[in-house]
Amino acid sequence: MADGAQAGLTGGCQCGAVRYRLEAEPTGTNICHCRMCQKASGGPFMAFGGVRTSEFVIARGAITTFASSDIAERGFCAQCGTPLTYRALGSDRISVTLGSLDDANAVEPARQIGVESRLRWLARALNAPETRTEQWLARAKIQAVHNRQHPDAET
Ligand SMILES: [Zn+2]
Ligand SMILES: [Zn+2]
To answer: 64-70: which pairs have CB atoms within 8 A and are 24 or more residues apart?
Structure first.
């Protein structure tokens, strides 16, 4: 992690139109189970880590924002829809979605928040039977897929 922080963690959206760099190691890391994070991600929860806004650098493109309430705005790529940021209005900090980091394992959430909305099936789902992607592709008889996802690196 120290190496990553010195080099600056990088990330971006699925299509590559938006790329960003963090100039500090994220703190206040969490997964948030709140209903707004479920809706904003389309997933069961969101994972975040934050830096000062001055330590968040947009390296390519532009982030579109939606003020999901009168206290916060959520940033995303307008071209592919990837959720990228969360910022409390008036705050000098901004959080990025940990899944949008090029190394999504680099930052580990330290807390769970919004737990009153944690989905009842979440713990059971994480213990459900497992399938690797290549097994799923083989079963679906898919030989090759043209992947349009931006690589997990600067281009
Ligand atoms: Zn995009
Ligand atoms: Zn939330």
So the answer is: 68/36, 68/40, 69/36
Closest ligand to Cα 116: 2
Please tell me the distance between residue 82's alpha carbon and the centre of ligand 1 in angstroms. 6
128 Cα: distance to centroid of ligand 1 (angstroms):
31
Query: Within 13 A of 70's CA, how many CA atoms are on the CB side?
Result: 0
Q: pLDDT tier at 1 (50, 70, 90 boundaries)?
A: very low
> Could you give the CA distance from residue 41 to residue 45 in angstroms, rounded to a whole number?
7
Task: Give the pLDDT confidence of 83-93 residue by residue, as tens digits.
Answer: 999 999 999 99
pTM: 0.92
E strands within 9-145?
9-12, 19-22, 27-32, 46-52, 56-60, 64-69, 72-76, 83-88, 93-97, 111-113
Cα 151 to averaged position of ligand 2 atoms, centre (Å): 27
CA of 149 to the centre of ligand 1 (A): 9
